[in-house]
Amino acid sequence: MNHLINSLTRLSTHAALPVEPKSGQLIKGKVIQSLQDNKVVVNMGKKSVEAIINQPLIKGSSYLFQVEQVEPALVLRTVSLSEARPGQLDLASLLKQIGVKENKDNLSLMKAIVDLKVPLHKKDLAQAFKLIQSSANQPLAREILIHMISRKMPIQSSVYSALSAKYTEEYSQVLSEVEQQLGKKSLSASDEKIKSMVQTLRAEQIPKSESVTLNKLKYELMNGSSSTFELLKKAVIIDAKHTLSSFQQNWSYQNPTMDRLPFTKERVASSLQQLLQNQLPLSPSENQTIKQWVHTSEKLLSVWAQQPSITDFHMLSQQTRRQWTETFRKVVAQNVMRRLTPHLQESTKLFIDKAVTLLGHDRGERNSFSRTEFRSFLSDMQNLIGKQVSIEQHKLLVHSLQSLSQNITLSDKDRMWLQMKAMMSRIGFNDEHVLAKAFQQTEAPVQTESSLKTLLLKGLSEGSEVKAETANRLINLINGTQLASYSDNPQTLQITLQFPGDFIGALKDVHMNMEGRKNDDGQIDSDYCHVMFYLHLSQLEETIIDLHIVERRVSVVVYNENPELEKLFKPYQKKLEEGLEIAGYELNSLRARVTSEVSKSSDSNKQEEAEEGVDIRI
């Protein structure tokens, strides 16, 4: 896992973080101006502040300060002084102050910490060295602590243990141990859920999983679950005219005991599959733009209907046309039409082609469209928007379809996607986020379906067949994946994920790094990003897939030791091109590189290898 840790450390070192001094913190700064009355201007990262100091300092030199006071004026006490040449700190003196032995490794680590320019209390600094000294793998511990400090994480043993598990444990191995410990024993309801989730995460066929899902849907419908009811209506499994009450009455009339659903599992699975395929691959802001465009279109058609003599768009008033064209211009500017196109009828595609051409002309006569064409376009868009589901419904949709997936025909790609979506929610990565959001919206506790992490924590306090040591390892691994998964600065984002490799036949966990610039939503801009997969496959063994995306054009390089690699994947290039096109991307290139050859060529330029950040030592 060194390649992941190294890339994270490099990223965190280069990412300047905003500095907000707090009393007691240690912080590195450079004196850039001397003022009167023992005042100086100190540069701390991207921020320069005026501060009162306790002794004369040299302009242009760097020092380590401790914040003694923030208000009404910032007061700094010099902890280590510059020595002979400007910028060099007395690191040995600082080590002595926190009770750490002076040696080459400790001095090197202290310099790395100070160079991060992150405010830090002395007690946290001392705790960092204590955690390293107690570790059996001190080089790894140093890299983890650097990552923790650079990301302003609490310097606590629990956080360190979680990140340590992230870089030393494998989901595939720990999940296998959990399943062995549960075995074929008579289990509690909680342990049965753990076993079922572990089997799902390991892509095993779970006996009776279909009936469990259908029974859950039946129970929720009987007990008035509006989210389940609305989801089945959107999937056209339940007639749109029904209210929840009228549906229950009709169901009871047909089947007084209501002991079975009024539709087959095949129909449920097929309809849910179609609903999932109708979900638009858009960000929240793009979704909002589309909804605004549809709303403006509805208003325009309403005005148009009141003027029956007007048959063409260009005959409408300039003000009426302008309101619609401006919202359409936003849709075009956000470059979302290519992702919408696969979901639209042919007549709507032709309408949009005309509308795009119309934007380039001052007068509307050329390439205009009729009211009939506009009405058809709007009907198609309203139908598409009406099929979109909420976040909670999407989670229920994925879980239900994944459990019923044996009743429908799915491509390997779609089956893998379903597995990943179900895995991300079931493992518990988003538990804290969901809980915090729920408490923001209501004071009442929100009942949610338990995740694997929640069930393991419950088992530790209430008893479980899963051994405490194994449960803690898995909980730490989940927490570590959460902590290491997301880092950002004002311009860029990096997401690092790790998940069991069983469902793609990998011998070890799959690791994925994604980084790119932010879009307006603060998310990774899918038009421009860099994605790397680290795999250990059963046949090809250790493999890296490196994807660069620029203006939605994808360049792929596959690293592997097999010299025949390119011959193996060339037959699949056409499928890749077609799949990317459906998703709104274009394949720019697909190449293979033999890692042994890369290693030889890179030996002569190790500095270049370090800066590129591609681990070719696999």
Distance between the termini: 10 Å
Mind telling me the CATH class of the largest domain? Mainly Beta
Query: Strand-residue fraction?
Result: 15-25%
Helix content: 40-55%
Mean pLDDT: 79
CATH fold field value of the largest domain: OB fold (Dihydrolipoamide Acetyltransferase, E2P)
Q: Please, how many helices?
A: 26
Biggest β-sheet: count, sense, barrel?
7 strands, mixed
Q: Let me know the number of strands.
A: 13
| CATH architecture name of the largest domain | Beta Barrel
Give unreliable regions as ranges.
1-18, 82-88, 443-447, 599-618
Radius of gyration: 30 Å
Category by helix and strand content: alpha+beta
State the strand order across the main sheet.
Answer: 7-8-9-10-11-12-13
At the fourth CATH level, what is the homologous superfamily of the largest domain? Nucleic acid-binding proteins
Q: Sum up the overall morphology in one term.
A: globular
Number of individual domains: 4
Biased composition (Basic and acidic residues): 603-618
Organism: Halobacillus trueperi
Region (Disordered): 595-618
Protein name: Flagellar hook-length control protein FliK
What does this structure look like?
Residues 603-618 have a biased composition (Basic and acidic residues). This is Flagellar hook-length control protein FliK. The chain is an alpha+beta fold. It folds into four domains: 1-155, Beta Barrel (OB fold (Dihydrolipoamide Acetyltransferase, E2P)), CATH 2.40.50; 188-252 and 259-279 and 390-427, no CATH class; 284-387, no CATH class; 487-597, Transcription Regulator spoIIAA. It is 50% helix and 16% strand. The protein is built from 26 helices and 13 strands. The protein has helices spanning 2-14, 91-97, 104-115, 122-133, 138-150, 157-168, 171-182, 189-201, 209-222, 226-234, 244-254, 265-277, 284-305, 318-333, 337-340, 346-359, 371-386, 391-403, 412-426, 431-441, 452-462, 468-485, 565-569, 573-582, 595-602, 606-612, and strands at 25-34, 39-44, 47-53, 62-69, 75-80, 120-121, 486-488, 492-499, 510-518, 524-537, 541-550, 553-560, 586-594. The protein has a seven-stranded mixed β-sheet. Strands 1-2-3-5-4 form a five-stranded mixed barrel. Helix 12 (265-277) packs across helix 18 (391-403). The longest helix is centred in the middle third of the chain and has 22 residues, at 284-305. The model is unreliable at 1-18, 82-88, 443-447 and 599-618 (pLDDT under 50).
